[in-house]
Amino acid sequence: MFDMMKMMGKIKEAQEKIQEAQKALTKLEITAESGAGMVKATVNGKKQLIDLDIDNSLVKPGDEDMLKDLIIAAVNKAIEDADELAKEEIKKSTEGIIPNIPGMNLGGLF
């Protein structure tokens, strides 16, 4: 028989675990690079740019468009990597609390 109180307790526990995991995301740092490492962007698990490293050889007059493209590529890659890592961390924090139902992705709820 379905136990509503038990289910509500599990939901509350899951919410607490998710909040803890979301706070921990700010401590995660993901670095991605472009241009063979000439531009490196670091984002946290909340997808915020926290560091940008540009090789001095790129800072030349006339190279602005190339530099812009490399920065965009590095930042976008870091954000993609951060998103994947954040999903993994949320999944780990709710493992055993929220059932794994095939075809149901609860990641978007958090």
TrEMBL record:
Organism: Agaribacillus aureus
Coiled coil: 4-31
Chain's role: Binds to DNA and alters its conformation. May be involved in regulation of gene expression, nucleoid organization and DNA protection.
Subcellular localization: Cytoplasm, Nucleoid
Lineage: Bacteria, Pseudomonadati, Bacteroidota, Cytophagia, Cytophagales
Assigned keywords, A-Z: Coiled coil, Cytoplasm, DNA-binding
Protein name (Swiss-Prot/TrEMBL): Nucleoid-associated protein QQ020_19815
InterPro entries: YbaB-like_sf, YbaB/EbfC
Cited Pfam families: YbaB_DNA_bd
Family that this chain belongs to: Belongs to the YbaB/EbfC family.
Assembly and oligomerization: Homodimer.
